[in-house]
Amino acid sequence: MNFKEVTLSQDFSELYIIPISDLHLGDPHCDLDKFFKYRKWIEERPNAFVILNGDIMNAAIKDSVSDLYNEEMNPNEQLKLAVKLFTPIKDRILMIVEGNHERRIAKNTSICVSEILASQLGCSFAPEGALIKVRFGKRRNEKEQVYTIYCTHGFGGGKKPGGKVNNLQSLGNIVLADIYIASHTHFMTGFQDIYFVPDLRNNKITEVKRTYVSSGAFLKYGGYGEYHGFSPAKTGSPRLRLDGTKKDVHLSI
Q1: Residue 82 and residue 66: Cα distance in Å, rounded?
Q2: Residue 190, C-beta contacts closer than 8 angstroms, at least 6 positions apart
């Protein structure tokens, strides 16, 4: 598990985190018009930051499930386009996580295109997942507010919402964090739970609210999803708003 600490401006009274995943560059159903709207929204707000959570490229290769002959561009062209698309907001990217589509190339060639993308953008990279500590804003005691975010591309889930939600909640068994972000299922959803942590030094129990987020995809309906009977899902990305004056997380879908 990778760990990264990020210190942002104390002038931010709130912080937006946008998990972008499953863009699937190269797939004919990739919705770049929607992506450009998200990018514009981020560019217009200095307190908006991004986590690229895998499957930015479709990366169809000879032995993959994706249809190699239906791709609009080859993996090298997809990588170049990804660099071009994210360069305008490269300073807002907190982490780049490898997805299962990019991992196809790494598995067959040892070449990690997600790591190359991160290197060219000057961003942090995590092959499996990362715990990010974010400091910003100012509480009543003049100290910065701190949040922890665990992000990983995700896995499995099946066709029903219940299975996808169960997999998302299972991230809480890995590490204690304020926010958990997974992708992969192309199913945008979120929920919160409460976790009690014993404070043995002060002889009390601390109540911790945890927020779980499944990011969506930037794929119009059709192709692989329709062929295999998956239900159409809302496209785009959820938006997390973190309070900089107290610990409070709001999720918009």
Answers
A1: 19
A2: 211, 212, 213, 214, 238, 251, 253
**What total number of domains does the chain contain?**
1
Q: What is the DSSP string of 50-102?
A: EEE-S-SB----TTSSS-GGG-SS-HHHHHHHHHHHHGGGGGGEEEEE--HHH
User: Tokens 């993308």 label which residue?
Assistant: 117
| pLDDT tens digit sequence for 44-95 | 999 999 999 999 999 877 665 555 557 789 999 999 999 999 999 999 999 9
Q: Residue 223's pLDDT is what? A: 74
CATH of the domain at 155: 3.60.21.10
Q: How confident is the model at residue 136 (pLDDT cuts 50, 70, 90)?
A: very high
Single-letter amino acid, residue 132:
I
Query: What's the CA gap between 64 and 62, in Å, rounded?
Result: 6
Distance of alpha carbon 145 from alpha carbon 186, whole angstroms: 31
- Structure token pair of residue 183: 């992708």
Q: Are 35 and 237 in contact, with CB atoms under 8 Å apart?
A: no
Amino acid at 207: E
Query: Cβ–Cβ contacts within 10 Å for residue 132, how many?
Result: 24
Percent helix, strand, coil in the chain, to 5, is: 30, 30, 40
Q: Which helix (H) or strand (E) holds 121?
A: helix 113-121
Range of the domain at 121: 2-252
Q: Which residues of 57-78 are buried (b: 16+ CB within 10 A; e: fewer)?
A: bbbbbeebebeeeebebebeeb
Is 59 in contact with 113 (CB distance < 8 Å)?
Answer: yes
